[in-house]
Q: What sequence folds into this?
C-alpha cells in the first residue's frame, strides 16, 4: 500500500475503493449492492478500505449504522494511529492523522442533505503520449525525471501509466541521462520495495510542473483494465515526484534499495522487465 498524506483518501487503498464505488454508482448500481460487492471482494479490508467505503456511502446518503459503528470503533480506539506508529510514521503525521480521523467521524455522524448525484461518464483523453520523457524540479532545486509507459485510449478514463526514475541532479536531464538512470523503488515508511509507478487520471494535472524533453520507444503493452501487481490508480500528480527525496533520505541510514536500470523498460532485453537485480 502507498500513502502520500494523512487525508482519508491519501493512499492507494482508499483512493481505489472510493473510485471503484463511484464507478459502479455512476453506472446505475444501488449503494447497498455496491457495498456488498466491495465487501465481498475485500473480506479482510484494512482501515483505509472501511474509511473510503464509509465516506462513499455517506456521500450517497446510504451509510448503514453497522459501518458507522465500525468507523467509530477504529477512531475511538486509536487503532489506526497505533498502526501508523508501527509503520514508523512521524509524530507530526500521527497528530495530523488524529485530527483528520476525528473530523471524519464527526462528518459521518451528521446527515448529508442530499445524495451525491450520479455522473454521466465522459471519455477523457490521456495527458501524454506513450514514451514521453518528463523532467521536473524537486524541492531541493534539483531535477527529477519520469517516463510515460502507456496512454489509455480504451477505457474512457484517459489514464497515463508513469514510472519515476532515481534522477536527482542539478542540471536538466537529457534523454541520455534518463536512459542511463535507474527506476525509483520506494522502501521508506510503509512502502515495501514498491516500484514508483501508477496509472494517473488526467484530472488535476498541472502543466506548469512537468516538461517533456522527448520520447522513448516502449515495447511492452500495458492495459489499465487488467490488474497487474504494483500498479495503483490516482489523480494525485504530485505522486510522480514526491517520494524521490524521501527515499534518498531513507537510504542515507538504511543503504541503497535494490532497483533496476531504466533501460529495461524502454529497450528489449533477454531478461523480463519485472526481473529486478
A:
Amino acid at each position: 500500500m502507498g500513502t502520500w498524506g494523512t487525508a482519508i483518501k491519501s493512499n492507494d487503498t482508499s483512493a481505489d475503493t472510493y473510485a471503484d464505488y463511484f464507478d459502479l454508482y455512476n453506472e446505475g448500481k444501488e449503494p447497498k449492492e455496491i457495498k456488498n460487492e466491495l465487501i465481498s471482494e475485500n473480506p479482510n479490508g484494512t482501515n483505509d478500505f472501511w474509511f473510503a467505503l464509509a465516506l462513499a456511502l455517506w456521500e450517497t446518503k446510504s451509510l448503514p449504522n453497522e459501518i458507522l459503528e465500525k468507523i467509530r470503533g477504529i477512531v475511538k480506539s486509536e487503532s489506526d494511529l497505533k498502526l501508523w506508529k508501527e509503520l514508523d510514521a512521524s509524530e507530526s503525521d500521527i497528530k495530523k492523522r488524529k485530527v483528520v480521523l476525528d473530523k471524519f467521524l464527526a462528518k459521518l455522524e451528521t446527515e448529508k442533505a442530499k445524495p451525491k448525484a450520479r455522473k454521466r461518464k465522459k471519455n477523457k483523453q490521456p495527458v501524454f503520449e506513450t514514451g514521453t520523457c518528463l523532467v521536473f524540479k524537486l524541492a531541493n532545486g534539483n531535477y527529477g525525471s519520469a517516463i510515460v509507459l502507456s496512454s489509455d485510449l480504451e477505457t474512457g478514463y484517459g489514464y497515463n501509466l508513469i514510472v519515476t526514475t532515481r534522477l536527482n541532479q542539478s542540471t536538466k536531464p537529457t534523454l541520455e541521462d534518463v536512459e542511463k538512470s535507474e527506476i525509483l523503488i520506494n522502501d521508506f515508511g510503509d512502502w515495501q520495495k514498491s516500484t514508483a509507478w501508477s496509472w494517473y487520471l488526467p484530472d488535476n494535472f498541472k502543466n506548469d510542473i512537468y516538461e517533456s524533453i522527448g520520447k522513448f520507444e516502449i515495447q511492452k503493452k500495458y492495459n489499465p483494465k487488467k490488474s497487474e501487481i504494483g500498479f495503483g490508480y490516482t489523480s494525485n500528480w504530485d505522486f510522480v515526484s514526491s517520494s524521490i527525496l524521501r527515499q534518498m533520505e531513507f537510504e542515507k541510514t538504511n543503504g541503497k534499495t535494490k532497483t533496476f536500470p531504466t533501460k529495461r523498460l524502454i529497450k528489449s532485453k533477454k531478461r523480463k522487465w519485472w526481473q529486478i537485480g
